Design the sequence.
């Protein structure tokens, strides 16, 4: 079944906004910036089967920026891993849908919260697949601010050394961290040169352009070379008053703001 990934991304944004509003939670800006990436991965790129979440040959997806979990919970509901009604329990006491992504939710491979854990774990998954002769790939989505963590750079070296060409990392490069811009907190550039120097195949795309994303995911890397995609995104993408604003890293939308945001997405 072919999935309209643009419509899927719109629905992810709508569900994410509703969840954060109800829970009075944080990180909606981060979820909105990755919605297109998530839609393309689940709608067109990865081999997954919602009816069998533990299918041995599935591709593995890891959200290293675990605070943006509502985007992943939303796509899992849209594809049928979980019931949409369950999304309304997000952030509630005893709900498996915690405020950072939880493996207690069907379809989630790994719980993350402390930044810098996803890529090292993904490297281990990719190495395991290689040694078992399995064909599935591992995809890891990281934040840009998360690259401040040294554990990621150790993982980058390890993956290149072990020729993990079954590993794909994606950087959500929205250029805003929790309290300030990435540039003012700890500048990352020249990022492409750094990744190349670590032995990875690097591409840069507009992280909201689905054609560019699919093309980058489908592009063949040289044998034995892991792939990394720098996705230039906009924090809060899709909601005008949230875009490129550090305020929406922690602030939940009020009921009035939710209504305005949903109206904008309805007309998108």
Sequence:
């Amino acid at each position: 079944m072919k999935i309209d990934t643009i419509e899927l991304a719109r629905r992810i944004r709508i569900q994410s906004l509703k969840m954060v509003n109800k829970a009075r939670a944080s990180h909606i800006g981060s979820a909105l910036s990755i919605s297109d990436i998530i839609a393309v991965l689940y709608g067109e790129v990865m081999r997954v089967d919602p009816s069998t979440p533990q299918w041995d040959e599935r591709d593995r997806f890891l959200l290293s920026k675990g605070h943006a979990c509502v985007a992943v919970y939303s796509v899992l509901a849209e594809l049928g891993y979980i019931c949409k009604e369950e999304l309304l329990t997000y952030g509630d006491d005893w709900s498996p849908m915690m405020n950072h992504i939880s493996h207690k939710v069907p379809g989630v491979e790994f719980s993350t919260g402390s930044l810098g854990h996803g890529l090292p774990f993904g490297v281990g998954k990719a190495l395991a697949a290689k040694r078992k002769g399995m064909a599935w790939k591992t995809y890891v989505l990281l934040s840009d601010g998360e690259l401040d963590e040294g554990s990621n750079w150790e993982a980058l070296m390890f993956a290149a050394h072990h020729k993990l060409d079954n590993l794909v990392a994606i950087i959500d490069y929205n250029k805003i961290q929790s309290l300030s811009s990435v540039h003012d907190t700890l500048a990352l550039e020249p990022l492409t040169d750094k990744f190349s120097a670590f032995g990875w195949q690097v591409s840069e795309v507009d992280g909201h352009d689905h054609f560019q994303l699919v093309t980058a995911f489908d592009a063949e890397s040289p044998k034995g070379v892991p792939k990394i995609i720098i996705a230039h995104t906009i924090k809060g993408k899709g909601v005008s008053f949230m875009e490129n604003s550090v305020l929406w890293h922690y602030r939940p939308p009020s009921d009035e703001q939710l209504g305005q945001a949903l109206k904008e997405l309805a007309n998108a």
About this structure: The longest strand covers residues 167-173. The CA atoms of residues 13 and 124 lie 31 Å apart. The chain has one domain: 5-266.
